[in-house]
Structures are given as C-alpha cells and as structure tokens.
Predict the structure.
Amino acid sequence: MAVDTADAPLQLSQASSLLDAGGFQAPQAFEVREQHVKVPTIDLTVEPDDLWERMRRGFSMPDLNTDLVTDRQIYYINRPGALRQIFTRSQRYLYYIVDELERRGMPTELALLPMVESAFNPMALSSAQASGLWQFIPSTGKSYKLEQNWWVDERRDVIASTNAALDYLQTIYEMHGDWQLALASYNWGEGAVGRAVAKNRAAGLPTEYQYLNMPGETRYYVPKLQALKNIVAQPELFGITLPPVANRPYFATVESRVALDLATAARLAETPVEEILALNPGYKRPILPANSSQSLVIPVNKIETFLTNLAKHDPASGSWRTYELREGEGLEGVADRLGIAATRLRQVNGLSPRARIGNGYTLIVPSESEGERISLSNLIPTHPQAGAVEPPPVIIQRTVVRGRNGRPVVVERKVQVGASSSVANKPGRSTREAVEAPARPARGKGTTKAAPPAKASTVKKQR
C-alpha cells in the first residue's frame, strides 16, 4: 500500500515511560500519531463507458497459472492480425453476452469463451458438426431447445445460442462446483470430466483441473481462456490495443407481421446486407420462414429508420419471396408464370432435375439482383426441404454379347435402382462407377427430420 509522504507524513515519536525516570533501560516504543494513506478506489455505482472495463470488473473465476497459459499468451500475441480480427468480430455480440452474464450472476470472463470456441464467427462449423458462436453439436442443441430445420438453425442464432450456452454452463458448474472443471466439461463432456475426477480421487491425487488426465484439446482449453482473460485485463502489458466497445446495446430485435427477406430488411434498415447476415446468422435461407412472425435483429441505431421504412413498404416489392404450390401446379408452370428459368428455380431450392414436388411445397423465389445474389449465396440450399421426392435413379447397363455374324455387340438396358439398393445408397458415386464397380452393402443411412417453423410490430431492446 503506497503512502504519499509529501501530503501526509507518517509521524513517529518516541514514547517515554516511568521506567526511564528510575534509570532502568526500557525497550524503545514508537507511537503512530498520524497516518493518511491514499487508496485508489473504483466507484461501482457508476457504469463505465467502455465495455471492456465493465467486463474486467466482473472477472471472478480463479486464475490458472501454468506453463500452458504462458504458451497460449505467446501464441496469441505472436498473431496480432488474427487477434485483432477476433476482437473486432466480437464488438457486435459482447454487450448482449456480458449483460446476460451479469443478470445471471456469472463470471464475465465467460464472455470470452466464443473466442476460444469459434473466434466469434457465428457461421463456424467444426468437423464434428458443432455450429455457431458457442459450437453446439446437433444433439446438445436439441437438448437445449435450439431449433434446427430447413429454414433455421438456432445454434447459430446469437440470442438463442447464448441463452442455451449459459444455461448449460450453469448446469455443469452446479454439477462440479468449480468453473475450471465446468469449462473442461463444456469441451470434453461432463461425464468424462466426472470420471477423470473420480479416478484421481480414488488414487489419492488432486482433483483440480490441471491435475486431471485429459485429451490434449481439453488440456489447452482453459489455458486459452485464461490467456485471453490476461490480455483483456492488461492489454498494455502485452502491447495490445483493444478496439473500443461502447457499453450500450449494439442490436435490438424487431418482430413484424409483414413478410420479409434479408435483402429487403437490409434495404429498409439502410444497412449493408453483410451486417444483417452477421446479426441474423440463424436463418439458413435468404427469406424468413413462412407461416410465422418475422423476427429480425437490427442494429439499435437503425431501428427507427427500419420501422419508418417498414410502414411504407409494399410486401410485393420484396427481393426474395416464397410460393406455395397449389393443387395441380408444377414447378415448370410456376417458373413460367413468374418469369424465371425453371433450372434457376430448382437450383435455389436444392432440387435435382428429376425431383418431384407437389401440393403444399414451399418454393423460394429468388432475386435477380446480382449484388444480393452474391451476398446471399451461402444461404441457397444444397438439399431440398422435406416434401421433395427423388425418383429412383436410372442407370444404363451395357452387356457385350456375340452377334449373329460372330462379332461382339453392345446391348444397353435401362435399370431403375430402388431406394434400398446398395448402389443408390452410395453418395458421391457417378452412374458409371455404380455400374462398373461391384456392389457393396451400405453401412447405414442418416435420417433427416424437418421441424415445423416456430413463432407479431414490437421492438425488444436488450436489458
């Protein structure tokens, strides 16, 4: 504790005693007459303007001090470009995450976890099919009620996935009573961590995170978060400059009964399509799901503009729209009536030239604007929605036989391959390969279930 000796000198005086008067040698004693110590304080009743400072005030997890933390710090500071990109991406989402953590009474350093999981890329997809900022695999996503169908994937939705991730983290923290073990469980699985703890306990070994026998990825997992926490806590120590993040909401949710597509929403909000895509990554198609209210995330400073333009918007002028087939209609007839090539209509709906669709099937009708097409190209389906029927493929079998004059003759025969055929079940094989290669039994087939679209004009602002 520092003492300012110029303003408040520490005064010490020798204290006399009765023993001194009698000639006895008494031990020297000192009395503190005055002492003023200046202690730096933080007024926690005043919200800081900077979100990074607000986050630092909420750091409450025990620090991990190991060589692996030092290793990860060196790794990050040696990649300033990548680190800058991660921090810049996080600017859109951090306020909402920090606000939710504080509301739940959770450590605010958990807001840095998407940096470890996905580098704050909501479209990130791992080899294990984990998706979104928080990297939920499909089964865990379903367990936490994250809808996944042809239209939406809430594992990528910023609001839905954040709430699910914090629910999950709270659950595994209550299970272990330790945040480092909870984080290890988030990466490795709570069952695996529980068994590793039990194994150490039975062997009389420490049961803290750093002493467990675990996969390499999990061993580095908490050190990565600790390294990022250290950098955010004292960026000047590492020669890092954090991009400014205002301590106020970045986005708000708007719900409208007017049918919208993402390109039109961007135009109404006078915002680039790329920004609307970054705030609404849960939508898998250029147009919002039919038969539900239209829920959109808009930059908070564009809400008024969006609502004003929406009030004057003609739904028929939308860039992308849906069309539901009626009784007796076919795709080619609809394409002619809408003035679009049937091949293009099939392409943007993930339909092969031989796929059959019928009454009630919802077609996506595309925009012909090149700019919008490029921006939204990653939302064009590669597989059809439920309800499309692919007819059994037809292959050509060629057999060489001896003709009447003794010369070899090639005889061709069309053969339909049923859905249960081993040839039909082999993805990625050409017709020629299917004919010429010997058939092998299929190892199994995946199944796809289509969930119905869920969920009228109000603005929900973040707390």
Remarks:
- The chain is about 35% helix and 10% strand.
- The first strand starts at residue 11 and ends at 14.
- Residues 132 and 156 are 4 Å apart (CA to CA).
- Residues 1-24, 419-463 have pLDDT under 50 and may be disordered.
